[in-house]
Amino acid sequence: MSSFPTKTDDLVRRLRRMRILVIHPDDEERATLVAHLKRIGCQVDMVWPAPDSLPDYADVVLFLLGPNRDANTVSWMANAGDIARIAIISFETPEILNALERLHVHGVLSKPIRIFGVLAALTTAIGLARHEATLRTRVRSLDETLKARRKIEQAVALLSESKGIDEQSAYKRLRDKSQNSQRSIGEIADAIIAANDV
Amino acid sequence: MKETVKVGVLFSQTGSMAVTETAHINGVLLACEEINEGGGIRGRQIEPILMNPEGDDRKYAEMATDLLVNYGVKTIFGCCLSTSRKAVLPLIERFDGVLFYPSVYEGFEYSPNVIYGGAVPNQIVPPLLEYVFEHHGRSISLIGSDTLYAREINRIVKEFLSESGGDVVAEVYLPFSAETGEIRAAIAQCGVDQTNAVLSTMVGGDSVALYDLYAESGLREKSVPIASLTTTETELMKVGRGARSGHISIASYFASVETPQNPTFVSAFQEKYGVNAGPSVYSEVGYSLVHFYANAARLNGKVDTRSVLQALSGSVFKAPGGDLSIDMDTNHFTLRPHIGLSRTDGTFDVVWDSPKVAAPDPYLVAYDRSITTRVAG
């Protein structure tokens, strides 16, 4: 029977909810790019020169990466977090290529900007940035779990002894409690150890 | 004698799309003739240079280059399938010409060098589905030629159905020039007891074959219609008489629409091509685009790309199907969709006219995917 695309995988509609910031001098090329971004239904803001920090609303940044160092400040990168970053380049010199790698962009548009390819660069970059954000979150929680491991082992031992269950079930209880209470498994373990000390 | 204005005419006269693309040519050539009889473009005759790419995308690209470079053509009327348009697009941009594209297509494209004359999904999919829901039901089977167009239309249709409590019974894609057996098998997949309507995105000669074979099926016996965005008088005339009637098509033009300017167009068309030749939307859009172009060129007497594109802005043409105006943000047209019910004589009874014109939304920025709000469930 029918297999519908789930709502989450509607790339284009997701794109519409994105706020895009274009960091590029006010010229004809920017006008062409912005007109097309609006044509495909995105919300766009423009700024030049590059700001020191990004406005909170930005989900995607398209920024000019030119050879001119002053106008090119990328200090906004410091608070760019999970934002999808697409560089606009007019040279492929080693210096620019190094900068691209260092800045860790999710996509590149080359000048002169052609309409064809903008949509694909956007969706790809957004997809990558999302994936990266997911991985980052996962890594953070793994880190924490790793740090808390000794405490967790201790808590599991206490729990299995006091409740008379095996260690696997004890761990499962910890994990379920963590999931249900929105607290990390380490915090739950801490609480159990503290309660046991009393 | 003034120098002529050469324009390219780039459509396949052979291959599986010949039936449809010939209809485009007929509309384009009729308009050229009318313009020339009326004194041309400020006294210069239009000289159409007809090329036949034989349904081969590479030839579309080669011939477009030939027209733009060797013939010095600035304007091409051409392409029907999206793959051929995509092949021509970079060349039209590189040599800075204008492509007038006369076919219905899937949207999601913009080039400053292309004028898109056909309907895009937001203009025709919702009203067609609304009509099918109201008159036949919400269980739909999808049969299409395996094109970009078919897949995109079906993606939109499925989204629509899921938002509106409908369902997809079968979804089949067939190769070009599909075998009889393949088409029969596709029809058989549409469960007689489950399907309320078959939405066809078949194109050209394959569309004709679908209707012919459908006539032998149980679906036909139960009066389950085929609903189509691509079947017009042109294709219907090629279908066997007994297989023609009772199917639904949506288009921005049918030969039977009632506008003041339509009778003149129909009689001119039939005088040139014979009474069994339509016209259909394929011819009407081709015809209208040529007039649109000529009117723009007459404004300042210049036929270079920049002048023509500037002159097109804001102009309105009284096309046989109704007023055409161009949206210069997207280079697509505002048009009025109609729904036709096919008849045994190969024409359509217009059973629904859109009460308002539909603005183009090629990137589906603002369209409403659900029709439950508009059709009582």
From TrEMBL, chain B:
The record's Pfam families line, in alphabetical order, gives: Peripla_BP_5 (PF13433)
User: What is this protein identified as?
Assistant: Aliphatic amidase expression-regulating protein AmiC
Give TM regions.
none
Top-level division of the source organism's lineage: Bacteria
Which source organism? Octadecabacter antarcticus 307
**What InterPro entries would the database entry show?**
AmiC_PBP1 (IPR039570), Leu_Ile_Val-bd (IPR000709), Peripla_BP_I (IPR028082)
Which example biological process does GO assign this protein? Answer: amino acid transport
Q: In Gene Ontology terms, what is one molecular function of this protein?
A: amide binding
Task: Give the gene name.
Answer: amiC1
Against PROSITE patterns, the record matches this protein to:
PROKAR_LIPOPROTEIN
